[in-house]
Automatic annotation (TrEMBL):
<feature type="repeat" description="PPR">
    <location>
        <begin position="131"/>
        <end position="161"/>
    </location>
</feature>
<dbReference type="GO" id="GO:0009451">
    <property type="term" value="P:RNA modification"/>
</dbReference>
<dbReference type="GO" id="GO:0003723">
    <property type="term" value="F:RNA binding"/>
</dbReference>
<feature type="repeat" description="PPR">
    <location>
        <begin position="162"/>
        <end position="196"/>
    </location>
</feature>
<dbReference type="Pfam" id="PF13041">
    <property type="entry name" value="PPR_2"/>
</dbReference>
<dbReference type="InterPro" id="IPR002885">
    <property type="entry name" value="PPR_rpt"/>
</dbReference>
<dbReference type="InterPro" id="IPR011990">
    <property type="entry name" value="TPR-like_helical_dom_sf"/>
</dbReference>
<feature type="repeat" description="PPR">
    <location>
        <begin position="262"/>
        <end position="296"/>
    </location>
</feature>
<dbReference type="InterPro" id="IPR046960">
    <property type="entry name" value="PPR_At4g14850-like_plant"/>
</dbReference>
<protein>
    <recommendedName>
        <fullName>Pentatricopeptide repeat-containing protein</fullName>
    </recommendedName>
</protein>
<keyword id="KW-0677">Repeat</keyword>
C-alpha cells in the first residue's frame, strides 16, 4: 500500500460516508515531496489532485511535476505526461523538466536525452527563446550531456547572456576536454564585460591545467586574489592547476593559504607531490592529514601508493595498502593494485601479487608488467604473462600494445 494523504480538518467538508479534501495543508510542496517516493506514490497523489481539481493550482501542479521529474530515479515518461497536461506551462515548470533530463542523461541515460531534445523543441514552439533563465538551463543540459556543439548553437542564439550562461558553456567545453575552446570563450566573456564567478574560474583553471597553460592560469589566479574569496572549491582548483603544470611550490603555497580545506583538497596536493617526484613530502602530508582527523578516501590512497612507488618506498607502500582496508574500511580497487605492481620493481614479486589479487587485472596492470619484463629482459615471465592474458581474456589484446621482451 502507498500512503495516506493527511487531511487538514479546518479545510474539509464531511458527509455521512466520505471525507473530501478540498485543499492541501498550508505547504503542498512539503506534502507531495515528503510522501512521493515511487512512481506509484506520485500516481496516487496525481489521481487525488485530479479528483479534487487541485491540479489546476499552478503551485500544486508544479510541485507534483518536480516530484516526478527530479526526486524519483525513474524514467521521465510520467513527468512528461504531467507536463503535457499542464495548462500553459510556466518557466519554472520547463526548468524542472530540463533539470530532470540533465540528471538522467548525465548519468548515461542517453535515451532520456531524446526527451530532453523534445523539451527544447517545445520551448521553441512556444516562443520562449527569449527567456534567459530557461535557455541557460537548456544550454547547461546539452553541455552536461556531451552535446557541446548543440549547446553552443543555443548559446549563440541567446539575445542576452548572463554570467550563468557563459559559465555553463565554458564548463561544458572544459568537461568535454575541449579546453582551447573553453579558454577562447573565456576571453570572449572578458571582452563582453561579463564578470566571471567561481564556476567560471574553476572551469578556466581546469582547462589551463589540461593544456599546461601556466601563464593564463596565473592570470586567473591573480583575478581571484583581487575579486573573489578563496573558497575550498577555488583553492582546490588552483592546487590542481599548479600541480599539473609542474609548479608544485605554488600549489603548496595556495594550499597553505586556504582558510578551509576538505579531504579532496588534501588528496589533490598529495597526488600532485607524488606526480612531481616528491613522494616523501606526499607521505608527510598524508600523515598530517590523518593527524588532523581528516578521513581519507580511496582516491587519497591512490596518491599515497603512487608516492610510495615514485619514491621507491616498498615497505611503506605495503603498510598503507594493508592499512587502507584494515584501518579505514576501504576495499582496494584496480587502481590501487596497479600502483602496487608498479611499486614492486621486482618482477617476480609483482607477478605473484597479480596472481593473488581478488579482482581481475586490467590493461594498465598487464601493460605495466609487460613493460617491466621488457626493461629487465625477463622473457620467461613475459611469455607467461602473455599466455595468461590470451587464455583468460581478462584484457582485450587488441586494445593494448605488447612490447617485445
Amino acid at each position: 500500500m502507498g500512503f495516506t494523504i493527511p487531511i487538514s480538518p479546518a479545510k474539509t467538508t464531511t458527509t455521512t460516508t466520505t471525507t473530501t479534501i478540498t485543499q492541501f495543508p498550508e505547504n503542498p510542496k512539503t506534502l507531495i515531496l515528503e510522501h512521493c517516493k515511487t512512481v506509484k506514490d506520485v500516481k496516487q497523489v496525481h489521481a487525488h489532485l485530479i479528483k479534487t481539481r487541485l491540479l489546476y493550482s499552478p503551485a500544486v501542479a508544479q510541485n507534483l511535476l518536480e516530484s516526478a521529474a527530479i526526486l524519483l530515479p525513474e524514467p521521465m515518461d510520467y513527468a512528461v505526461s504531467i507536463f503535457h497536461a499542464l495548462n500553459a506551462p510556466s518557466s519554472p515548470a520547463y526548468n524542472i523538466m530540463i533539470r530532470g533530463f540533465t540528471v538522467l542523461a548525465a548519468c548515461g541515460r542517453l535515451a532520456e536525452l531524446e526527451l530532453g531534445e523534445w523539451i527544447g523543441k517545445h520551448i521553441e514552439a512556444n516562443g520562449l527563446e527569449g527567456n534567459t533563465t530557461l535557455m541557460t538551463s537548456l544550454v547547461d543540459m546539452y553541455a552536461k550531456c556531451g552535446c557541446v556543439d548543440t549547446a553552443r548553437r543555443l548559446f549563440d542564439q541567446m539575445a542576452r547572456r548572463d554570467v550563468v550562461a557563459w559559465s555553463a558553456m565554458i564548463s561544458g567545453y572544459s568537461q568535454a576536454s575541449r579546453c582551447k575552446e573553453a579558454l577562447l570563450l573565456f576571453h570572449e566573456m572578458q571582452k563582453a564585460d561579463v564578470e566571471p564567478n567561481e564556476v567560471t574560474m574553476v572551469s578556466a583553471l581546469s582547462s589551463c591545467a589540461f593544456l599546461g597553460a601556466l601563464e593564463t592560469g596565473k592570470w586567473v589566479h591573480s583575478y581571484i586574489k583581487k575579486n573573489l574569496k578563496l573558497t575550498v572549491t577555488l583553492g582546490t582548483a588552483l592546487v590542481v592547476f599548479y600541480a599539473k603544470c609542474g609548479s608544485i611550490d605554488s600549489a603548496i603555497e595556495v594550499f597553505d593559504r586556504m582558510p578551509k580545506k576538505n579531504a579532496f583538497s588534501w588528496t589533490v596536493l598529495i597526488q600532485g607531490l607524488a606526480s612531481n617526484g616528491q613522494g616523501k613530502k606526499a607521505l608527510k602530508l598524508f600523515k598530517l592529514m590523518l593527524k588532523k582527523n581528516i578521513e581519507p578516501n580511496y582516491v587519497t590512497f591512490i596518491g599515497v601508493l603512487c608516492a610510495c612507488s615514485h619514491a621507491g618506498l616498498v615497505d611503506e607502500g605495503r603498510h598503507f595498502f594493508v592499512s587502507m582496508s584494515r584501518d579505514f574500511g576501504i576495499e582496494p580497487r584496480i587502481e590501487h593494485y596497479g600502483c602496487m605492481v608498479d611499486m614492486f620493481g621486482l618482477i617476480e614479486e609483482a607477478y605473484q601479487f597479480i596472481k593473488n589479487m581478488p579482482v581481475k587485472s586490467n590493461a594498465l596492470i598487464w601493460r605495466t608488467m609487460l613493460a617491466s619484463c621488457r626493461v629487465y629482459k625477463n622473457v620467461e615471465i613475459g611469455e607467461e604473462l602473455l599466455k595468461h592474458v590470451l587464455d583468460s581474456n581478462e584484457c582485450p589484446i587488441g586494445g593494448m600494445l605488447i612490447p617485445p621482451v
